[in-house]
Write a structure and sequence with these properties.
Helix 2 crosses helix 3. The strands form 2 sheets. The protein has a 5-stranded parallel β-sheet with strand order 4-5-3-6-7, sandwiched between helices. It is of the alpha/beta class and 213 residues long. The longest helix is centred in the middle third of the chain and has 26 residues. Strand 1 and strand 2 form a beta hairpin. Helix content is 50%, strand content 16%.
C-alpha cells in the first residue's frame, strides 16, 4: 500500500500511515461542494464524491414505488422524519464508497446533506475519519448562496425551487446542527468560502498531527 499524505499550511507533506476520510455535511446551500472540493485540492486528496451522486445511483436501481424518499430532494422528503429515512438509504451507498476507497488504500472526501452526525460512523478502522458540518447562520446570506450558484452553473438547478423551500431547508439545517452539537462534530460557519475552507483544512491538519503523535 502506498503511504498517505496530508498537506500542511506550508505545503510540506505530512506522512500518515492510513488514509483520511473527510466527511463534509450540512444543509442544502451551505457551500459543501465548493468548500469540500477546495479542501480536497489543498490536502492532495483526489478521491471525491457526494451523497447526491450516490442517491442518484440508488434512484437508477430503485424506482419510486420501491424507495420513494430517495426520489425527492432532502427538503421535500417530509420534514425531519422523511429526511432521516432518506439518509438511512443513502448512507448504505456512502459506506460502500468508503469501503472501496479503503480497500484500494486511498484517502477520500465525501460531501453531502446526508452526512448527518449520529448516523455516520465516529471512527473507521484503518482510516483517520474527520467529520464536520457547514452552516450559514444568516438566512439572507443563505438565500444568496442559491442565487450565486444559479449564476455560476447557468441555472442547472432550478433557483425558485430552492428559494421556495427555504423554510424547510433552514429547518433541516437546525436538525443537522443540533445533532452536530450533540455528537461533538465541529460546525463551521460557511458565510465565506475561503474562511470555511481554511477552517476545514485546519481541522484535518490538527487531527493528522494528533494522529502522528
Amino acid at each position: 500500500m502506498q503511504p498517505h499524505y496530508s498537506v500542511s499550511d506550508h505545503g510540506e507533506p505530512l506522512p500518515l500511515d492510513r488514509p483520511i476520510v473527510l466527511l463534509v455535511g450540512g444543509a442544502t446551500g451551505t457551500g459543501k461542494s465548493t468548500v469540500a472540493t477546495e479542501a480536497a485540492h489543498r490536502l492532495g486528496i483526489t478521491r471525491f464524491t457526494s451523497t447526491d451522486f450516490i442517491r442518484q445511483t440508488i434512484r437508477a436501481y430503485f424506482p419510486p414505488p420501491m424507495m420513494p424518499s430517495v426520489h425527492l430532494s432532502s427538503f421535500e422528503a417530509g420534514g425531519e422524519e422523511g429526511f432521516l429515512e432518506q439518509t438511512r438509504h443513502v448512507l448504505v451507498g456512502v459506506e460502500a464508497s468508503i469501503e472501496r476507497a479503503l480497500t484500494e488504500g486511498w484517502s477520500m472526501v465525501i460531501e453531502g446533506v446526508h452526512l448527518v452526525p449520529g448516523m455516520v460512523p465516529v471512527a473507521i478502522q484503518g482510516a483517520l475519519l474527520v467529520h464536520a458540518v457547514l452552516r450559514v447562520e444568516d438566512v439572507d446570506e443563505h438565500r444568496s448562496h442559491f442565487s450565486i450558484r444559479d449564476a455560476s452553473t447557468g441555472g442547472v438547478r432550478p433557483l425558485e425551487k430552492y428559494l421556495d423551500g427555504m423554510d424547510e431547508i433552514r429547518q433541516l439545517q437546525d436538525v443537522i446542527v443540533e445533532r452536530a452539537q450533540r455528537f461533538d462534530v465541529p460546525v463551521i460557519e460557511s458565510t465565506s468560502t475561503e474562511e470555511a475552507t481554511s477552517a476545514l483544512v485546519d481541522l484535518v491538519l490538527a487531527r493528522v498531527e494528533l494522529a502522528l503523535l
